[in-house]
Amino acid sequence: MHMADALLAPAVAATMYVASGTAAGVSVHKLRKDDEERKLPTMAVTSALVFAGQMINYTIPGTGSSGHMCGGMLLSALLGPYAGFLSMIVILTVQCLFFADGGLMALGANIWNMAFYGCFVGYFLIWRPIVNSNWFGGETKSAQRLRIIVASIIGCVVTLQLGAFSVVLETTLSGITELPFSAFVALMQPIHLAIGLVEGLVTAAVLVFVYESRPELLMDVDATGTAIGKRSLKATLAILAVVVVVVGGGLSLLASSNPDGLEWALFGNEDANVENMGLDEDNFGVESKAAETAGSIQESTSFLPDYAFPDDDSPAGTTVSGLVGSAIVAAISVLLAFAFGFFRKKKQAA
Amino acid sequence: MIRFENVTAFYENDKPVLNGVSFTEEKGETIGLIGANGAGKTTLMRTLLGLLPHEGLITVDDIPVSEKTLPEIRRKLGFVLQNSDNQMFMPTVYEDMIFGPLNYGLDREEVDARVDDVLTQLNLTELKHCYNHKLSGGEKRMAAIATILVMKPEIILMDEPTSALDPKNRRLVINTINEMPETKLISSHDLDMIWDTCDRVILLNRGTIVADGSAKDILQNKELLEDNRMELPLRFSNP
Amino acid sequence: MLAAGDSPVHKLHPSAKLVVTIAYIIITVSFSKYQLNGLLMMIIYPAFLFSSSGVTVGTCFRKLRFILPLVLAVGLFNPLFDRAAMIKIGNITVSGGTISMVTLMLKGVFCLAASFLLMATTSIDNLCAALRQFHLPPMMVSLLLLTYRYIGVMTEELSVMTDAYSLRAPGQKGIKFNAWGSFLGQLILRTMDRADELYNSMQLRGFSGSFTYADCKRFDRRDALWIVLWILLFLICRFLDIPGILGSLLLGGFS
Predict the structure, then answer these.
(1) pTM
(2) Domain of C157, in residue numbers
């Protein structure tokens, strides 16, 4: 889902920076009250772990293909929403700087799409209410385990749907794609439904393991299976309704407009299979490849006139004379550059 | 001076991991702490550092270890962790070395002077601006020792200082330990290293002290060691 | 390590490099999709940096070889959708789609190259020093550095586990369903213990919430000049049709 710089207009990118920056500011402020120095080492090693963990491949049963995780839900279940969000920012920043995964200018948008929803929506609207509810028969260990599974899966699916939808919105607003909005949505949502399901299953498996060995590590979960703060049935139902609408929307889109979405997403993952585990930029980023393929396709299908900067009144067309001129400029600058480099090397040798 | 008087320590609601431990370490002494896995060596150090609650009395220079005295106590103690990666959390060796002294309020110039002194003492000057994540295992261990020495602690605690080192680096660490004049408490399974560095040895088994005496007496006593899930050091075990 | 180099570009203040890189990306992206002429001019910046920093173009493309196809694939279908003729060179008609495809590809490549050059000439701690100067919360910067420090450690631990797994599960492509939870779960438990030990080690050295880093070089006149000149040049490239002027002068001479 990592967006490249070329997919965004500067104005949209700036807006997303402001939005993500505000959320980050609030998080930093909240954490400062909340014993930040105690949490810092935990956040750092956990982010490093999730970063490395994104390179693991999980075999999806019955398909022969594999998926991996992006970590927003996992981090907020382990660290809480604020610390989780800041950790995700750090992960995305490192990916952007060292692996060119997602552009520098698009970082604000990427943080919003991948970290904001996963941490805040995922935690406050899904994880906490579900884990604290009395679903599946209340206060037993197995009920709590089921709640963790359900919360993880719904959380990942919903937050990835929201993220994918934001990618569509941001690209459309940037004027990069002229693909009809509805078609674009129909393309993006089903792919991310599949990705979200896989991520949800992996997250659920991991969190259940943690729950069974060291339940005190999970947010809002009590070792004995007792919910920590009871939530009213009404609130839980309201949240469930939101979830159903979003998931249902995704599912119906999957069923109606793009039956191939699932296969495509899975195929995309298999195609980009990562075998090597080393911290190696060459083998980095599976999910982003599938998503960026999607991005590139919506990108490529634009055929309406381009969005222009408001202050841009220079003629947009390319002319023959212009091409000749720019070829000359390019040639001269490259030549100059090489000459410069050549002299520099000579100087060093001397 | 370290004093343990009938010290008992627990990890949450479990069996005691230290049970009635008593000993005194005088200034300038080097004590080797030996015992099988789970004997309580690391726990003993952690209680001394105030990282684990205890019953009984622990004093450092006659100051009892308690919540209130922790800052004072910890300033006197330097703890070299078994895993240097957990100790070296800053980007470079230099930044790691200034971390402790600056937290104790020393001014930057004095800290910089200390850093250079310690690096020269340990022959590590060329590592000063190296990235921690690029150091080799041996370099990392030596640098971790440097981050502790630069705080000028009175007592140095070391947890498995020679684990996972090749023979050359192991020898380097042993020599370094022998050149340090501070009071030292070293825990290890490497009994040959203990032999080379310590005059006195404390043998732990299942949380209690089974023997406390000179290295000569304990490390050559085959029966005692084997009764406590240990073996003679290699140099004495040849037929 | 590339960032440890010693060229004039490496020696610039990291803030200056960061500002120019961001300005470059923003201005490059803001070209409209048919403005191939103007966009071509933007090659000046990466070309200059490649030659003066000693970082080779080959290194850049080799490092980015897995991201690059994605960036290039972005505009591949444009010629199919946008067939309106835009320019004619002799008998060959070039469609708007082809132009926009090339423009998009170039934008992608230029932005990637600019980011790459920033990271290839700036070390992480210098970059973080710049971020601190931009008044990012110190906590975020420390978190970034701490995380960076442990990425290598965690990756190594994980790769050992993966090797151990695959050695006992020959022929499997990934981690099987029944081990999904325990595989990463085990590592999470150990990671939490590591975090505790890390925090202990900070506490034992008097940690009170602040980190001190080595000093970064001072921001001097050269750095300011670097920012001003480049941004000026970018703006000229963006708003003046230099290639057009040059080209018509040249072609005009022939006719």
Answers:
(1) 0.82
(2) 135-203
